[in-house]
Design brief:
The protein is about 40% helix and about 15% strand. By secondary structure, it is an alpha/beta fold. It has an 8-stranded parallel β-barrel, surrounded by 5 helices. It binds phosphoenolpyruvate.
Length: about 250
Amino acid sequence: MPKTIVAGNWKMNLTSRDALTLVKILDNTIESKKVTIVLIPSFTLLPAVASVIPSRFSLGAQNMHFSAKGAFTGEVNASQLQDVGCSYVIVGHSERRHVFGESDGMVNKKVLAALAADLIPILCVGETAEEKDTVDAVLKRQVETGLASVTKSQMKKVVIAYEPVWAIGTGNTATPAEADSAHGVIRKIVSSVYDVKTAESVSILYGGSVKADNCKELFKQKNIDGALIGGASLDAEEFSSIVADA
Ligand code: PEP
């Protein structure tokens, strides 16, 4: 799989009919073979999307519970995601952390449960507007705790997404230099926990108001290996154009 990843987080949008139309248009408009493309619909849409998704695209889920099974009404586990064809799962998205109160400890349990079920976790980290002055410390805590007990060999199956909370859904993208610097910090943290080789091989995606008109400069940065796209992933033309620039 190419190290460059463009993932579309559809969040809580679309019906199965809209989703099928979107997949069809993306299949017709995306040509690049240099990019790993991951489509990440709501849970209810996963079976419909899995039934039509071309094999050159991967399917992901937006969240999961860390337990293998049990009395967790409303939750979905890693093997259920595997069962419907997912190979990726977003873990610790800022909306989960800040709207639904997920802690670093819960995020770590999800990362470990995803890996145990052979799903690739996309571990999301990023500072809030209030934490901008302490971004390095926030990233250190989120990355180190999020990856606790993950082995070096498991790191081959981990993707990290840097998503500054103040940039998500706001139209305020981090500048390419700001994003690259945060990605560099994340790579250094991975290097100090594991080693340089692991840090160089991990894909670190940028997320936060990425659009067709601002992605080119972001993708030129040394430490940016792709993007996690929210709003713009619902627009086939925008998403295809971002993939073409990746
Ligand atoms: C996201 O939800 O991960 C995201 C980056 O959203 P947006 O692109 O809309 O800012």
